[in-house]
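Q: Could you fold this chain for me?
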Amino acid sequence: MNKQKIIEMAINAGFSISDEGEIQSPYVEGVDLSNLLKTFAKLVKDDYSKRHAQLWLKRIDDAVKAEREAIEKRVMELDETLATRVNVINKAIRTGEKNER
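A: Sure. Below is the predicted structure, expressed as structure tokens.
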């Protein structure tokens, strides 16, 4: 999370920002600092949770993709083995040979 994202969340929580880009403390009569801080903390937590969830979703997606590729490779190997065995059987049927496997 960079400074700009923190400033954006502070603005969304109700804080004001100085001309220098610093978050200003809202010590103004009628402003509930407690609620502003709670809102800001929730925004930070939600942003972290979203980023954390996205990271795990990507890891899961990558793992599923790798597993699919491994299964596809194994199916292709089995398909080649089966095709070879079918060819041996067909040849044996045509020629009358017996294979001792």
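A (continued): The chain has a mean pLDDT of 81.
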